[in-house]
Amino acid sequence: MMTLDNTYDEAELREFHARLVKLLGTDDLAYTVEPKIDGLAVSLTFENGRLVRAVTRGDGEEGDDVTANVRTIRGLPHTLRADGGPSLQGGSLKAETVREGTTAESGVSPGELPLFASEPPPSGHRSTGAGFPALIEIRGEIFLGLEEFQRINREQEEAGLEPYANPRNLAAGTLKLLDSAEVAKRRLEIVLYGLGACEPAEPAPSQSAYLARLVAWGLPVVEKFWVVRGIDAVWSAVLELDQVRRGLPYGTDGAVVKLDRLDQQRLAGARGEGQSARKLSPRWACAYKFAPDRAETCVRSISIQVGRTGALTPVAELEPVLLAGTTVKRATLHNSDEIARKDVRPGDYVLIEKAGEIIPAVVQVLLAKRPGGLAPYVFPTVCPVCGTPATRAEGEVVWRCPNPDCPEKVRRRLEHFASKACLDIDGLGEEVVALLIERGLVKTIPDIFRLRREDLLPLKKSGEVWAGNLIAAIEARRRADLWRVLNGLGIPQVGAASSKDLAGRFRSLDALAVASEADLLNVGGIGERTCGLIQAWFAAPANRALLEELRQVGVAPTPPATGGAAAVLAGKTVVLTGTLPTLSREEATALVEAAGGKVSGSVSKKTHYVVAGEEAGSKLEKARALNVPVLDEAGLRRLLQA
């Protein structure tokens, strides 16, 4: 697997074209322009249409066998769909045609683009008779969608752990995990676009036709690309991609420009031929790298956040600055080691960028602008809230406050338990939790259920109405869904999805508390590490006491419904996208789950329904491409009433 040469400006891109014109003897060259996805390169081998091997790029000659983990990717079929030839029916692929410097969007069909799938295959081409070669190596990129990355980081923060820095590194680390069940929990995605070995012959005459062929086989490809002729049109496509890339569901750091015709690719060859693959780069393709969005600002101060589990996380408080369309006032500094490595000091001028286009991070200190007299930052050795000496476990980079009664840890635990993702206690938000702690009314989770109306009356001017509403909301949650209580308890590595899986399998806290390792590992998405953390949590005396207190105050979680007329979506997967007229995302999710269904964040061939509202984007397009039934809110309600 070769590496692409990078270009960084228009002049270098035109030089790339000029070299090909000289080499091929014509300036009438067709190109494809595709988003460069910020992921991990892999190669998939299909024999007689069946996936037999998945390997990372590694050093170009030897990579890691990740077949078991790749098989967990929901959008990737393990068997190619038999077809009579390439097809793009049903709007399954979008291309942009750019000719003579102008741009026009069109749904691609076999006759619209040069050298597309309507052309006959090369002479001597043979296949299995089902439309695919006996052996083909298909290359692409594995990545984490931006929504999934945000979901995982929310669960990290809820568990008191550091958020991951960017989607690419997390995707690469996930693919190397030994436990495929853990990999499946993170919902990796893949797009395919490259051709390696193929026997007995290439399946298409051009890159654009090859993408069409991949779609016909049921494989995921880039959802937007351009087929262009001439370098002016290439540059127009690159500029347009730069404008739309932030609306794509994955991170992009550039554009890949390729000669469209495969016979011209073969003529152009590779630079470094005769050497090892790790030194090879194709002459017929290059990557145009977009400049990262960066901004310069000043670090006003460095603050320390105390998480629910006591993790001390440093944050740079910044002079507000506009970056990638949003005003940034804070940026993560990750941990004490990272501050020391970059030597970030309050008062420094720094460059910041959005890591993975999501989380603002300090990239570097502008030493030339450092004011005189700035002292190095000293990471606190005590909790900034309660003053307890901080500790750091061997092998960890995170400092923690070990005090279980630290007011900030208490506040975070209570906020988490009452949040929408957990018990969803209406009216018990951050301000009210802080007020209740300040007045000494709550300190532990069970204290929430000990509150009385008369305790609340003095806290607000409109105390009578407010107090009555809050007590009613708390009372309504004594029999909250079991998964919500589980999620609210803050068991390490157990977020909303795992809580639902555990609730469905064990159906009570008592049963889960005594579950064996074998029983836990039989739950989808629970791996050995998470299993150990669950058992350790239920074995801890403080947590057993917490559960007993919850029983004493009348908390009796409700197990999920089983069977019956209500379970009309039992065993079915639903994806929600866009804004629904009357239902929030949480309300729609609750309706689907109450009917036995499961809500997923990504569309695949295994999706049963997509519920689409206003401003539905790529998920709706993918659903149509895969012929997944699409419902509006009214259609969802009719389905649930069936």
SSE order and pairing:
Blueprint: E1 5-7, H1 10-24, E2 30-37, E3 40-47, E4 50-56, H2 67-70, E5 94-99, E6 102-107, E7 135-143, H3 146-158, H4 167-175, H5 180-185, E8 189-199, H6 207-216, E9 225-229, H7 231-244, E10 252-259, H8 262-268, E11 270-271, E12 281-282, E13 285-289, E14 294-306, E15 311-323, E16 326-332, H9 336-342, E17 349-355, E18 359-365, E19 399-400, H10 407-418, H11 430-438, H12 445-448, H13 453-456, H14 463-476, H15 482-489, H16 496-506, H17 509-513, H18 517-521, H19 528-539, H20 541-552, E20 573-577, H21 585-594, E21 598-600, E22 609-612, H22 618-625, E23 630-631, H23 633-641
Parallel strand pairs: 1-13, 5-9, 20-21, 20-22, 22-23
Antiparallel strand pairs: 2-9, 2-10, 3-4, 3-7, 5-6, 7-8, 10-13, 11-12, 14-15, 14-17, 15-16, 15-19, 17-18
> Roughly what fraction of the amino acids lie in strands?
15-25%
Q: Tell me, briefly, the overall form.
A: globular
Helical stretch count?
23
Strand order of the largest sheet: 1-13-10-2-9-5-6
CATH class of the largest domain: Alpha Beta
CATH-defined fold name of the largest domain: D-amino Acid Aminotransferase, Chain A, domain 1
- Distance from N terminus to C terminus (CA atoms, Å) equals 52 Å
Number of domains: 5
- Determine Rg (CA atoms, Å): 28 Å
CATH superfamily of the largest domain: DNA ligase/mRNA capping enzyme
The average pLDDT score comes to: 84
Counted beta strands: 23
